[in-house]
Design goal:
This is PEP-CTERM sorting domain-containing protein. The protein is of the alpha/beta class. 31% of the residues are buried. About 6% of the residues have low confidence. The two termini are 14 Å apart. It is built from six helices and nine strands, in the order αβββαβββββαααβα.
Length: 277
């Protein structure tokens, strides 16, 4: 009788553990994203909503010394993500983050997270020299409530061959990453409603100029600021919160396969205890 009771207790404990694990996984799932921004470094060629075509991104002319081409792409992506999620702002409540997602992908492939609201930004060479600018994007068109174009449109581009003209300012790989990533975040900022400022703005980054700063009047940002680790100004981030909204920072949970292995191990431990007894 005692043995049967102990076996029943072990089974109940294991069942409770399974239910608790599944509950944690369900509660930790992220909600559907407000919008997903996909950065494309590889499509060759591609054309954005303005009719401007770009080739694939070529990192070799920038003179990176300690990073492979793939590492350069990953570093640019990580820095862009950091611009939107990596700083502390007074208006950002603890445990909250912008309701926005980023991926590296290829135009036409769609987002890996299954989001129905998504836009592309192309990082590459303006091989036909159609603009002469460092990048461009449409204002607010990456916001779901203001989609001017259908989901999946290429709403902005960063022209790395034009950025190459400023590469002599960069002395380190970090400088080179900041030059490209800062311009990328700047153009994404436009697509999320941010305009150019009139000058320097208070921000948590390395420069007195925020990421939306520009060399054009009236901001007149010196080009040397572009290689610094800039951040969105406090006022810009307030506007992003208003335009995008916030979500809870999700708790990372193990992959389903890992969970199953954990449960199997626990089951074996329970069985072993029963055999020992």
């Amino acid at each position: 009788m005692y043995k049967n009771k102990m076996q029943k207790t072990h089974v109940n404990n294991l069942f409770s553990l399974v239910v608790l694990t599944l509950l944690v996984m369900l509660l930790s799932l992220r909600p559907v994203k407000a919008s997903t921004i996909i950065l494309d470094f590889t499509s060759n060629p591609s054309t954005n909503i303005f009719g401007v075509s770009t080739n694939a991104f070529d990192s070799s002319p920038f003179g990176f010394t300690g990073l492979s081409h793939n590492q350069v792409i990953e570093s640019i992506f990580d820095t862009v993500v950091e611009d939107f999620f990596g700083y502390v702002y007074p208006s950002l409540p603890p445990g909250k983050e912008l309701d926005l997602d980023f991926e590296i992908g290829t135009i036409g492939s769609g987002p890996q997270n299954g989001d129905s609201d998504y836009s592309y930004f192309k990082i590459g060479e303006d091989y036909q020299n159609q603009t002469g600018s460092l990048g461009h994007a449409c204002l607010s068109c990456a916001l779901p409530d203001y989609f001017t174009y259908s989901p999946g449109a290429v709403v902005g581009s960063i022209f790395t061959d034009n950025l190459l003209n400023l590469a002599q300012l960069a002395l380190t790989d970090d400088d080179r990453i900041n030059l490209i990533a800062g311009t990328t975040s700047h153009e994404i900022g436009h697509a999320l409603s941010l305009p150019h400022p009139s000058g320097a703005e208070a921000n948590p980054g390395e420069s007195s100029f925020g990421l939306m700063g520009t060399g054009a009047s009236p901001a007149n940002m010196p080009n040397g600021e572009r290689i610094l680790d800039r951040a969105f100004s406090y006022s810009n981030f307030d506007r992003l919160i208003s335009a995008i909204g916030l979500r809870d920072i999700s708790v990372e949970v193990p992959e389903p396969g890992t969970v199953m292995l954990m449960l199997l191990s626990l089951g074996l431990m329970v069985s072993r205890r029963k055999l020992i007894k």
